[in-house]
Amino acid sequence: MKLKLLLSVLWIAASEPYDVTMPGRIWAQLIGLPDPAGRGTHRISAATRQLNDKSFVRTEKRPGEPTRIVLLDETGTGGSYTSPGQRVAQLRRAAEDFEHDRYFRVPKEFWTNGWIAVVDGPATAMLLVLLSLAAGRSDEEIWIAPEVADRRFHLSPETRKKGFDRLRDIGLVEVRRRPVTRQLDTTRHRNVYTLNRDVLLNAVPGSAPADQPRDLS
């Protein structure tokens, strides 16, 4: 939930001053929570508080009005937010290395086509991993080494399995077994993943495409 909410804030608050003000029920509808005007709103409030406590956002409560959410640095340092493109441009002008600041885009169709409502937390995490690893690559199959998942993404085997299982079930990912090495009579295999971008760019079956939410304060 927190990851989906933070992604949605990043999507909507994409320009300076990097803030957004919307009622909780609108956030709940966007993310696909049940009972958006009731329990869904309470879940959004709890997730917003947690993101604020972790310094991913700063919240400003205003009596009788929706909470204003201001983006902070994505690393959780509490510093001011800078868009990825702006950060890379700054590093390039300074002739500094920007390898650790490379970024990728999440297709807007993740929201407008309703996919955010049908993926859970683990599936969202693994979708981001696949988009990250596929950025700038021409080959379709992606392999994720366990040590990379642990060191770079800090994801447990359980999260990876649950996430990929869900992505496969809803058609966003294909999973295949590929041989790696053969030793005597034993052949080792590994899972490789193909992100179905064409599926992602179409609406979830049975849903109607949505427009990007506006500031509804």
Notes on the protein architecture:
The chain has about 220 residues and is an alpha+beta fold. It is built from 9 helices and 6 strands; from the N terminus they run αβααββαααβααββα. The strands form 2 sheets. Strands 1-3-2 form a 3-stranded antiparallel beta sheet, covered by helices on one side. The radius of gyration is 19 Å and the shape is globular. The protein starts with a helix and ends in a 17-residue tail after the last helix. The mean pLDDT is about 85.
Q: Secondary structure elements and their pairing?
A:
Elements: H1 2-12, E1 19-21, H2 24-31, H3 39-53, E2 57-62, E3 65-71, H4 84-93, H5 109-112, H6 121-134, E4 141-142, H7 146-151, H8 157-169, E5 173-183, E6 186-195, H9 197-200
Antiparallel strand pairs: 1-3, 2-3, 4-6, 5-6
Helix pairs in contact: 2-3, 6-8
Mean pLDDT: 85
Morphology = globular
Largest sheet report:
3 strands, antiparallel
Low-pLDDT windows of residues: none
Strand portion: 15-25%
Helix content: 25-40%
Strand order of the largest sheet: 1-3-2
Estimated structural class? alpha+beta
Number of beta strands: 6
- SSE pattern: HEHHEEHHHEHHEEH
Count every helix, treating DSSP H or I runs of 4 or more residues as helices.
Answer: 9
Gyration radius (Cα, Å) is 19 Å
How many angstroms does the end-to-end distance come to?
22 Å
